[in-house]
Description:
Blueprint: H1 3-6, H2 9-16, H3 23-49, H4 62-69, H5 76-111, H6 124-130, H7 135-144, H8 147-161, E1 167-171, E2 178-182, E3 185-187, E4 190-192, E5 195-196, H9 197-223
Antiparallel strand pairs: 1-2, 2-5, 3-4
Helix pairs in contact: 2-3, 2-9, 3-5, 5-6, 5-8, 5-9, 6-7, 7-9
Amino acid sequence: xxxxxxxxxxxxxxxxxxxxxxxxxxxxxxxxxxxxxxxxxxxxxxxxxxxxxxxxxxxxxxxxxxxxxxxxxxxxxxxxxxxxxxxxxxxxxxxxxxxxxxxxxxxxxxxxxxxxxxxxxxxxxxxxxxxxxxxxxxxxxxxxxxxxxxxxxxxxxxxxxxxxxxxxxxxxxxxxxxxxxxxxxxxxxxxxxxxxxxxxxxxxxxxxxxxxxxxxxxxxxxxx
Length: 224
């Protein structure tokens, strides 16, 4: 879903002109949000399609796919490239989604909080806590308490500060399934489950699209 059409960014750009001292900063943040949306879609489609044409599907494909794990396939080079592309695009989706909410927090800080949160400390949790009770605050609190947002935040912190979460190729001899799986990991005393690439992309997309709910709630407050 395109952010610019599902959330009226043009109205916010007009509202920015009524705040000349902060117009440039507000417009730059809005532009960043629009660009993040385009970057997210690039990574989403790249992750979705990375393994197409490399992994075989259907009855009798198990041994052909197993040969990729054993590294004796004539498709090995294509597989290695596709697997790196899959991991890179999934990382791109996750990091972009998490960053998008912190950029949104800076927009909230400019438009609603009178820059009361120091820019260096302004992230989505701090900005949400600083908001007065409102539909926007409730929406953000609901997102921040969701399992998928917790997963994304833990994944980003693990990848930034410790190690990459394992990204593996699995072949099933039971259901003829083969594909990428993101392995379980632990962060800050909590265990997070493993997911297939399609499951994790669906979860990330669910969180990313909640920015539209936040944006519409922000517009309502700004316009009023």
